[in-house]
Amino acid sequence: MAVNPENLSIIVNQLGPTIGGVAFAAVVGWVITTWLKIKNGYPLESSWGKPLHPNGGGEAMERIKLLSQENAQLRAELGSLKDRVAVMERIATDQPSRLAAEIDALATKQLN
């Protein structure tokens, strides 16, 4: 099957603008996607999906460590607040005579 050079030039002339338009659209899409990733703080990736800067640097690791410490402190504070709320609920829903007896027991315990 021989290809006639005249037919080949006609095919190239007809498909050239379409192929060029698709290639241009692909490049513009890639540029916009990369710009949006940079703008919104997403890591850039290679063509195989791996981050270009996988370790993130020492600053990122230090920030993660500080956030983890703050998270642990907040969890501890939340636990103590839950305990206090439980005590307040018990006081609010307890019978007055029983509450007075417990307060008197604590007062005598401190005196001894």
Low-confidence stretches: none
State the separation between the terminal residues, measured CA to CA: 113 Å
Order of helix and strand elements from N to C terminus: HHH
Beta-strand content:
under 5%
Query: Structural class, judged by helices and strands?
Result: mainly alpha
| Major sheet | none
Oligomer: single chain
Count every beta strand, where a strand is a DSSP E run of 2 or more residues: 0
Q: How would you concisely characterize the structure shown here?
A:
This protein is mostly helical and 112 residues long.
How would you describe this protein?
With 112 residues, the chain is mainly alpha-helical. The chain folds into two domains: 1-54; 55-112. It has three helices and no strands. The chain has helices at 5-40, 57-93, 96-111. The radius of gyration is 36 Å and the shape is rod-shaped.
